[in-house]
Amino acid sequence: MGPQLKASLCGELLTLEKNIIQNTASVEHWFREMFKIHPAPVYSSVDLRNSCFKIAPVDTNLFPAGFNNIGENDMRCVVQAFMSTIEKKCCHVKKVLLIPENHTRNTHYFDHLGHLATYLSNSGLEVKIGSFNKELYDLETIYYKSSNNIPSSFKIFPINTVRGRLIVDGIIPELILINNDFSSGVPNILRHVEDQIILPSLDASWSFRRKSEHFKQYKKTTKEFSSMFQFDSWLTTPITESCSDINFQTKEGETCLTDKISDLMKKISKKYNEHEIKKKPFVVIKADSGTYGMGVMTIRDANEVLKMNRKQRNKMSKTKEGMLTKNVLIQEGVYSFETVVNSNLSSVAEPVVYMVDKYVVGGFYRIHSNRDLDENLNAPGMQFVPLAFEDSCQSPAISNDPESTTNRLYFYSVIARLAALSAAREFTC
C-alpha cells in the first residue's frame, strides 16, 4: 500500500466545502470574470494548511520550483495549460529563454528545471536555459531524472546582449521566462531589455514584492468571495500583521514585534472562541520577502521573541542569498492536521497546489516526519508525495462524499486560485 492521506474537515469548514461543491457553476463563473480583470501570473504555487476547522494559504510563490514533484498523471494538464497560456499571452512566440535560480549544488532544483524545460518544449517552444551566473554555465552537461526516472540532461548557456536584446546559444528568444525570484536584486541587464516579453513581470520578484501586501489583497479577495456563499472569511484567511526596521541581532524593533504578536494572539483567540475551537493559538514570524522556508519561526507566546538565543537570531537575521531581514510578516499560525502515513510512519503534511496561468495543474504534499503540526515544513528533511493530486484536472464529483479525493482537491484548488487571484491583484490594483 502506498502513502495514505489522513484528514477530515469538521464543522463550518465541512459545510463550506459542501456549499462550494454544490455551487461549482457559480464558483467557476466568478473566477472566470475575476481573471478577466486581473490576469493570473504565468505560473505559481500555493502552500496550504488544513487544520480541519480552517484551510488557508500560508505562502504564494510566483517563481515555483517543484514541477518535478507533480504526479505523472498530471503532466498532460501542465502541457495543455502552458499551450493555452502561451496562446493567450504571447501567441507569436517560438523561442523561449528560461532563466533559473543560481543554485549550483541543489540537484532537486535541477530536476525541476529539466521537467519545466520539457513541459515548455512539449508545448511547442524551442527552449534554451541561460544564466548570468558563471558557476552555472561553466557546468558540464547537467543530468536529471525525467518522468519514469529516465536519465535526461540539459545544458545551461551564458546570456549575452545584442542591441538591447538577450541572446543565448546564438538564438534571440521572443520570450524570457524567469524562474529566479531575484531576492538579492534584479540584474540591470534585464531592466533594459527591448522587444522581448518578460514573464513574470520583474515587479513580481522579491526585490519588490512583499508578503504583507499579498495577504492584504488576499483578505480583500476572500471577503468578496465569502459574501457570495455567506461564510466567515476567516475560515480561509490567515490574520496578518507586519513590522519594519527589524534587526534580530541588535534587537531593534522588538517592541513592535511583541506588541503585534500579542495583538494578533488576541484576535486569533477571539476567533477560536467564536468558532468553539479548543486549540492554543500561535503565530509564525517570517521575512516579508524571500522563499525556501528561510527566516521562519513559530511563536506561541510574545515573550519568546525576547528570549531568542544567538542561533535563533542568526537564523532569523538572513534569508535567501544572505539578504538581511529588515521587514517581517507576522502571520496567524494554521495547524496542519493533514498527515501522510507511509510504511507505518506518520508525517505532518501540507498540500502545495501548482498553477499555470489560471489553471490548476496538480501538486503534491510536502511532508516532514520530524516536524510538528504547528511548525514550518519547508525545511531540510522534507519529502514530497504526489499521490493525492492524481485527479487534479477533473471537476468535482457533486454526487460523491465531500471527503473524496476529487472533491477535496477541488476545494484546495478554489483556495489556491483565490491566492493566485490575490497575487494578480498586487500588480493590477
Q: How many angstroms separate the termini?
A: 48 Å
What's the story with the biggest beta sheet? Answer: 7 strands, antiparallel
Globular, elongated, flat, extended or rod-shaped: what is the shape?
globular
The helix tally amounts to: 11
List keywords for this structure.
about 425 residues, alpha+beta, Rossmann fold, 2 domains, six-stranded mixed beta sheet, 19 strands
How would you summarize the topology of this molecule?
Layout: E1 4-6, H1 11-22, H2 24-37, E2 43-50, E3 55-61, H3 75-90, E4 95-99, H4 107-122, E5 126-131, H5 134-137, E6 142-145, E7 151-154, E8 156-162, E9 165-168, E10 175-178, H6 188-191, E11 197-199, H7 211-229, E12 240-243, H8 254-274, E13 283-287, E14 296-299, H9 303-306, H10 310-317, E15 328-332, E16 339-342, E17 345-356, E18 359-368, E19 383-385, H11 405-428
Parallel strand pairs: 4-5, 4-10, 5-8, 10-11
Antiparallel strand pairs: 1-16, 2-3, 2-17, 6-7, 8-9, 12-15, 13-14, 13-15, 16-17, 17-18, 18-19
Helix pairs in contact: 2-11, 7-11
